[in-house]
Design goal:
The chain contains 22 helices and 23 strands. The protein is of the alpha+beta class. It is globular and about 80 Å long.
């Protein structure tokens, strides 16, 4: 955890749940070290709920290290990789490699196979598969004011040799930037005038194998403050004191620096700041001021901090800074996150142009799983795609959306997952990631914990029982009107309807916060809207046995019922989508020979080299006429080959 001491959020929280559903670690570790838990977007429907947790760095690091050190089959070696070792199947001289790296195209077949890595110490580690997860360290450079020095994180060296090694291998590298706010001594902050932000009770753990978390009853409090016009004036007056503001290198649009906010939203007089403790009081007094990442000189940072309400006497323990780093064009990747140029080389995280731990963890799981699966199968099986792979499409979940966006569209700014990116967000929710992915991962050998699988069996059985309970309560419309006290009119069509039907039509509701404390952290105007799923009387008033069903199961069943009509439509759309995804495109197509395709379409298809017709359709700039021409060309070629 190098920057923000938190996990999850809108979209990101679903990714953490998906990682956990496939037995990844970060959700479990966040639960064990979490010191404040909240469901973001609670004022909206369950499809866009975002689980989030503040995490104690000390506890997280301790538990993660202990888990990794005792993980079966895993050996850990500390060292810095300086070079990737390749075995070239074709002889390409240095000039040819430079030419490949400068071209906007991707090789139809790999030009090399990875055989290991060389450490800066000179030691060579041989390997059939290698996964690169460099974060912001690849060619990393820190900026504070006008000062710049090589580093991927303050106090730690950048990976310069590996960046050169990737360039030498022919990869196209781009440059991105991000930033982090200053750190504050919480003991010097005046919280008395700030609104509080409390954690939820009961908490919603990330992991599907946890019912609660260790620090549910001693959650820390976050506070809200804001910038002022005086702060903005100081930032404007010192734009020339930061080299990080330049527009030639793109930073995160959805988590912009304070300088970017002041520049882009000049009409705003203030921006929110959330003061988030980095852990329990016994471990640290450091506070993370979320919302003011910046790269101003240290003296300017100290001055504007003391212009913020509540921070008049604050002590800055570490200045904010910006980081520039290299990344690989993700269109260089296959759906397994193996590179197209180098067989056996996989990439995950910021090296692919994404932001955040959540996106990195999800990619790491997928890349690591596929590297492991490929390592235990023959080269021939992998090349013929007979070896099992973990591949997810857009209808499978947010990880599928993330991978598809990266490999078909590329990036021109750090990519962040949002619920709006998924056209299947009603079916890819935080509360059903286990139902969507756990058995699929188990079939590939990723989930070996019998307790997790047994728990999933129980959830499915409980949901079936709860749904059957609702289906068994059946009345005519006039009886339902009487049951609801005449408060709602039901169409008197003479058709008997079950309680489940009435939930689907919005006549019965479920209390989201049953048994919860008064949610002081939710704005008052949101409370009535957020409190209930669906509308009308509560289900337990009509079906008394419903109150005995576990809250989590009730919420799952009611959510499925609420979205029933939409989910049926989405299922039909997903089936059409999967048919298009099953129509494979040859990897070695010469797109310049496809008549009708424009020069722009040829260029874009040559860059991405989509593996399916569905992926080709999602490339920006590819027209319906171009897709039809491509389909006709492929069919004619296949017919000619089989003749």
């Amino acid at each position: 955890m190098s920057c923000n001491p938190s996990f999850g959020g809108i979209g990101k929280g679903v990714l953490v749940r998906e990682v956990d559903a496939m037995d990844g670690l970060c959700g479990r570790m966040a639960d064990l070290g979490g010191v404040q838990f909240r469901i973001l977007n609670r004022s909206k429907g369950p499809a866009v709920h975002g689980p989030r947790a503040q995490v104690d760095r000390v506890i997280y690091k301790r538990n993660m290290l202990q888990t990794l050190q005792t993980y079966a089959g895993l050996d850990i070696k500390a060292g810095s990789v300086a070079d990737i070792l390749l075995d070239r199947s074709t002889e390409l001289d240095e000039q040819a490699l430079k030419r490949l790296a400068s071209q906007d195209s991707t090789l139809a077949t790999s030009s090399a196979t990875v055989v290991g890595v060389r450490l800066e110490s000179g030691e060579i580690i041989r390997a059939r598969k290698v996964v690169i997860t460099t974060g912001t360290f690849l060619g990393g450079e820190i900026h504070i004011g006008l000062k710049a020095f090589p580093s991927g994180r303050k106090g730690e060296a950048a990976s310069i040799g590996l960046s050169k090694s990737l360039k030498d291998a022919g990869f196209r590298l781009g440059r991105m930037k991000t930033g982090t706010p200053p750190r504050l001594d919480g003991l010097t902050i005046d919280y008395s005038r700030m609104p509080k932000q409390l954690g939820d009770m009961p908490v919603s753990p990330f992991s599907f194998i946890h019912d609660s978390v260790p620090h549910a009853n001693d959650q820390v409090v976050c506070y809200q403050t804001h910038t002022t016009p005086a702060v903005h004036d100081m930032i404007r007056a010192n734009f020339d004191q930061s080299i990080h503001i330049r527009e030639t290198i793109r930073g995160p649009r959805y988590c912009p620096s304070l300088e970017s906010k002041v520049k882009r939203f000049s009409e705003k007089e203030s921006h929110l700041i959330w003061l988030e403790p980095e852990g329990l009081p016994e471990h640290t007094s450091t506070v993370y001021p979320n919302g003011i990442s910046n790269t101003m000189p240290e003296d300017i940072q100290q001055k504007f901090l003391r212009m913020i309400p509540g921070l008049e006497n604050v002590v800055m323990t570490q200045p904010g800074y910006g980081v520039e780093y290299d990344h690989v064009d993700p269109r260089e990747l296959k759906r397994t996150l193996e590179t197209k140029r180098v067989t056996g080389l996989y990439m995950a995280g910021q090296i692919n142009g994404t932001t955040g731990y959540e996106e990195a963890a999800a990619q790491g799981l997928l890349a690591g799983a596929n590297a492991g699966l490929a390592a235990v199968h023959s080269k021939a099986e992998c090349e013929s795609q007979e070896a099992p792979q973990l591949t997810l499409d857009r209808s499978d979940g947010y990880l599928g959306v993330l991978i598809d966006d990266l490999i078909t569209r590329g990036v021109n700014e750090p990519y962040r997952v949002f619920t709006a990116r998924s056209e299947y967000r009603l079916s890819s929710r935080a509360n059903n990631a286990d139902l969507r992915l756990t058995r699929r991962a188990a079939a590939l050998g990723l989930v070996r914990d019998s307790a997790r699988l047994a728990r999933l069996d129980t959830v499915e059985a409980d949901m079936a029982h709860a749904q059957a309970m609702l289906e068994q309560v059946v009345h005519l419309p006039h009886i339902w009107e009487a049951q609801m006290g005449g408060s709602r009119r039901v169409v008197r069509d003479g058709v008997r309807k079950s309680a489940l039907d009435m939930i689907r039509k919005g006549f019965l509701s479920e209390d989201l916060w049953a048994g919860a404390r008064d949610p002081e952290n939710v704005l008052p105007e949101h409370i009535p809207k957020a409190r209930k799923l669906a509308g009308g009387p509560e289900i337990s008033a009509i079906v008394p046995a419903w109150a005995d069903v576990p809250l989590d199961i009730r919420q799952r069943v009611v959510t499925e019922a609420m979205y029933h009509g939409h989910l049926r439509q989405l299922s039909a759309e997903a089936n059409t989508f999967k048919r298009e995804e099953s129509m494979r495109l040859p990897a070695d197509i010469d797109y310049s020979k496809v008549r009708v395709l424009s020069h722009e379409e040829v260029d874009k298809l040559s860059i991405v080299r989509p593996d399916t017709f569905g992926a080709a359709k999602r490339i920006d700039g590819i027209t319906p006429g171009g897709i039809l021409a491509l389909l006709k060309y492929v069919r004619q070629n296949r017919a000619a080959q089989s003749a």
